[in-house]
Amino acid sequence: MLHLFAFEKFIYAGIIAYQSKNFAESQSLFEKALLINPTDFTTNFWLLRTTALQGNFDVAIQSLNVCKQCSVISKVENLIKPWDEYCSSPTTNPQQVELLNKHTDELLEYYQHFREFHLLDILKSFLMILISGSIVYVVMPKDTSLVVLSSLFILIIAPLMIIFYYRKTTIIPSFFVLFYYCLHRIRKLFSSNNFINTSLVVIIGILVAAKWFPFKALGSTKNYATIITAIVLTPIYEEIFFRGVLYGYLKKHGKPLAWALATLIFYWTHGDSAAYSHIILSCAALYIYDSEKTILAPILVHSMYNGIILLHVILY
């Protein structure tokens, strides 16, 4: 475990050094990471970039050859090819080097965060949900309240869904890289007019729905565990499944159909607590997911939604 932590820390520190154009330090950090895992694609790729820009093409080509032997290479050939060409005929034009770096960073982000889902992924998700629910039902006493059962279920299923979603990328990013990416994307979201306007639509929709269609099955939620579960874990689990996995598969068959089915299934699975505001939330989450291209956007909108509903229940 400590080796894994050190490995990811070296990669993250190496990337920061590379972005600061401190290539000698970056190379040293990537080489330390390779002492722990010499065949890792990501580390070898970053070492390739670092040494190539320093003109150390012997080391760069060694890293390039390791990358070519990795199983992921067939999916990321357009990431490797420009650097293969650069090692063969390096350019001294700084603008071309800058464009190469920019293009590489864009591709790398795409491969580390883009996910393609299939019907089998939906079945795997359903299986995880079924097993998690069964564990809670079997282990807990018969007289356990529905609120406690639901909270325990979310505590089990949310981490499983996070791991499942995390590992669906073409290139699995290190924890430190992912953490940095999430912080950066959250900052960008809160400065995005599109995200802010969508959040306002959800808030107004909740207030209107609360006036005409009172919320159901939420009366016993006045405890810290339920509040934390509802605001933090439930949005993560539901958005990864409904917007990430389910919609990610359905949109291959057309977005209008995908929006309709994902929204209906989202509403239906809430059972007695289903409200018209769930339809507003689903449409807003789908819109913001499509426009911002990150699952973090609907998770944050969903978290706001649950927070406002809980506040309404507690106050009224």
List the helices and strands and how they pair.
Layout: H1 2-19, H2 23-36, H3 41-53, H4 57-69, H5 77-88, H6 94-113, H7 119-139, H8 146-166, H9 175-189, H10 193-212, H11 224-250, H12 255-268, H13 276-292, H14 296-315
Helix pairs in contact: 1-2, 1-3, 2-3, 3-4, 3-5, 4-5, 5-6, 7-8, 7-11, 8-11, 10-13, 10-14, 11-12, 11-14, 12-13, 13-14
Give a verbal description of the structure.
- The protein is mostly helical.
- The protein folds into 2 domains: 2-113, Alpha Horseshoe (Serine Threonine Protein Phosphatase 5, Tetratricopeptide repeat), CATH 1.25.40.10; 119-315, no CATH class.
- It is 78% helix and 0% strand.
- It is built from 14 helices and no strands.
- It has helices spanning 2-19, 23-36, 41-53, 57-69, 77-88, 94-113, 119-139, 146-166, 175-189, 193-212, 224-250, 255-268, 276-292, 296-315.
- It is elongated, with a radius of gyration of 23 Å.
- The N and C termini lie far apart (48 Å).
- The mean pLDDT is 87.
Mean pLDDT across all amino acids:
87
| Helix/strand structural class | mainly alpha
The Cα radius of gyration reads 23 Å
Give the tally of structural domains: 2
Fraction of residues in H or I helices: over 70%
> In DSSP terms, counting alpha (H) and pi (I) runs of 4 or more, how many helices?
14
Strand content: under 5%
How would you spell out the order of helices and strands? Answer: HHHHHHHHHHHHHH
User: What is the overall shape?
Assistant: elongated
> How many strand elements?
0
The main β sheet shows up as: none
Low-confidence stretches: none
**Euclidean distance between termini CA atoms:** 48 Å
For this structure, the quaternary state is single chain
